[in-house]
Input
Amino acid sequence: MMTTLNDLAYTRSGDKGDISNIGIMAFGAAEYEALRTWVTPERLRSFFAGVVLGPIQVYELPRIQSLQVVLHDALGGGATQTLRFDETGKSMAALMCRMQIPTALLRKGEAG
Output
């Protein structure tokens, strides 16, 4: 079975130039471990195929059970150059909320 990232965490995105960043704040310890395991640069490359063209970095913030995702070359050149509908990357977190995550990664009785 699968669930969505939206069921495991809050998200917030922003941008600077052609770089979009997404903060992922897990609802709890089990959710953080599932996200930490599943949300990798390789999976994000597949998820954002054709949108993110540059390097992808995922930083772990275990003390606050969060991840920081940095997506380079993700906004078609940035707000002053792109022809994309969302030229500033504010919707990247909303898109990422649809990412599918296996429920098996959640330890029974610990999610919530």
About this structure: The chain has one domain: 2-76+93-105.
